Amino acid sequence: MTNDYPFKEIEPKWQKHWDEIGLFKADLKKYKNKFYCLMMFPYPSAALHVGHGRNYIIGDAVARYKIMRGLNVLTPMGFDAFGLPAENAAIKSGIPPKVSTLDNIETMKKQFRQWGVGYDWDKEVISCLPDYYKWTQWIFTELYKKGLAYKKKGAVNWCPSCMTVLANEQVIAGSCERCETKVVERDLEQWFFKITDYAERLLEDISRLTDWPERVKIMQTNWIGKSNGVDIDFKVDGTDITLTCFTTRVDTIFGATYMVIPPEHPDIPELIKGPARGGSASGGNKDITKFEEFIQRVRVQDKIERAAAEIEKEGMSIGKCVINPVNGRKIPLLIANYVLMEYGTGAVMAVPAHDQRDFEFAKKYNLPIEVVIDNPKEHLDAASMACAYVDDGIMVNSKQFNGLTNREAMEKIAGWMEQEKIGKRSVHYRLRDWLISRQRYWGAPIPIIYCDRCGEMAVPEKDLPVLLPEDIEFSAKGAVPAGGQGSATGGKPHGQSPLKASEKFINTKCPKCGGSAKRETDTMDTFVDSSWYYLRYLSAKDDKKPFDKETVTRWFPVDQYIGGVEHAILHLLYSRFITKVLSDLKFIDFDEPFRRLFTQGMITKDGAKMSKSKGNVVSPDILIEKYGADTVRLYTLFIGPPEKDAEWSDRGVEGAYRFLKRLYRIVEEMVRENWDSALDEKADKELKRVMHLTIKKVTEDMEKDFHFNTAISSTMELLNQVYLSVGSTKKRVSPAIKEALKITIILLSPFVPHISEELWQMTGGKESVFMVPWPDFDPNALLTEEVEIVVQVNGKLRSRMTVSVDAGEEELKKMILEDSEIKRWIEDKNVKKFIVVPGKLVNIVI
Predict the structure, then answer these.
(1) Are the beta carbons of 825 and 798 closer than 8 angstroms?
(2) Could you tell me the CA-to-CA distances from 822 to 27, 809, 828, 832 in Å, in that order?
(3) By the 8 A CB rule, do 630 and 753 touch?
(4) How far is it, in rounded angstroms, from Cα 648 to Cα 127?
(5) In 3-state terms, what secondary structure has residue 326?
(6) Percentage helix, strand, coil, to 5, in the chain?
(7) At 514, is the pLDDT very low, low, confident or very high (cuts 50, 70, 90)?
């Protein structure tokens, strides 16, 4: 006998065995008992750390459990392989992104195998390969034909030093992440998907997502941001320009004393033409460059900060007025930092008496404040107000609506404005169309052709994919076509995709007239790649179509989707949108992709999210070498409730390892004993009860909310009970102990599969433990024959006794009065009353 736990021999052995028996191979033709278990596919940036592992280990535990429940489990994996990090790394290292990306994928696949997480690799997808992005381009062309893909001017982040467009993720505190230069905004022609056409459906169908976390549904609801209100047209005095304002507080319209627009507003260039009469919000300045300087400074500010209530309010007067249509008053028009284009129409009627941000701005720049909703408890005086009045009240200074409550007035004013044709009820959404353009190389080329004769058109399906050229050189000078000169900026990056400088890529033939034409040089946002990958898994090798309609209809929606909560908004919203579009186009027969969603929390180290920059990354490779994969898996699942963040502890890993060593040792010792020893009937009954309680608890934890930590804890307690039972039989192992030990192994197998397979074989198992049906608990076995009761004298604990659950009150009295401890407390005193709480306690009143 040995106390060693030989994980280095056990783990590769069983990983090979699972491959040989095809444990994770799903038969797509058998769908009646199907279970589609999907993990969010990773970006192959580098080696995985233990924080990444939580997602994949959770998913693997679920898949193995469902296999044991007899389901036909589909559990595929792929890689979200396009993106800016790989391109930036290529520029830094000179290694082409395709080479580094595919190398990283191989590294990650080895790590998956080391962890013991199993996937059906026949269904692997890699988004940067033509056999995948051909169909990403096909989806684009289908949206384009439906009018859901279009091009317009849009604001982008621009680094003046790198001379390049940056994605939002590359802007840190308003500066370029690479060179720390202050980022500015520029307006460029960009491609968009018209997701706003689906805003109402995306919002309404959230109610159908009954098995999604509530916080995710709230996040999506808020992101879509539906608001009911009124559109009001404010004519700009002395011009032909009309600014439309959307408000949810039409009851305050008579109190609008100025209008503000954000620096991004498209009418600003026209509005500031000619002799400007305004500079600061209240002063004068004829120099238009002051506007431009202010606009540029505000545009680079973080939009979340700009929308925050506590931001320092800043503004400039345009020197023009707008006319309030309800009373004909001319009110000043200003540019301000605290309004955003993302809200409503961008133009905001400012009512400082009843909006705190407007109030602060008005006070700062000495703008008028007029009360139109009075406090019914205390009359408001605009001159003495210390803050805006935002509660309900009585209408004043509002013509025929005076005296109404403001809630009554809302409907009446809206109706009156529609009647007078100066306003119209409307619905607005916070959601904006999806900007998919990236002026970078490492992405799927947008399949659009421009012909001087025929105009703009999508690439025909027969000509897809539009291949991303690979003859690109990467160096510190940027990415350029092989043999190219870099840029016209002395070797510095020129801020354009290499595709723009690749004549071989750009120049093509028009599919309509056959004449010379140009290709689009923008590539697609990687969110497009990840918005449909779950469909491609079912037809991963099909070169004729992106997916088979009949197959996906039978296998969808995904039964269980597992991933990080950081993807709760964009990825999930985009996936829902693309699914609905494909459904409308009759390519699929369902319009929601994911039935059940689980979002795991992060694993932190030293109180922070693991990242290389923080130096707190824990490598699983080192831990697996020292303790084995099952130790890493056990600790990862045991660390805490999986939906919550958890702090990684090296001591905790050692504790998990000690438990597995103990488990291995106990089984190794007991299999050498005689399984048919004489029974200790009482101990065996208690063991059987604990065993069935554990089956019930673990099953409920797996089925409901993936409470792996409490499931594992329950199984540890069962093992303790086994150990106690062995002690009671003096090392002679009864059939009940054998059964409980085998149940322990089965219950642990989804969590620690390698050691479970080994121990299952040691205890006589002939096939994989994952081919064994998951056990059912026996409700009758949960019943206990005896119970421990508390005995009190005058309400104070004096003894404990084990009695039959069927013991009547007279029998209890007799047993208690004969107990030596109770005799000592009663002695010759009078017993006035016995108070019996069945199965719990008896209180003797003396």
Answers:
(1) yes
(2) 68, 17, 12, 15
(3) yes
(4) 32
(5) coil
(6) 40, 20, 40
(7) very high
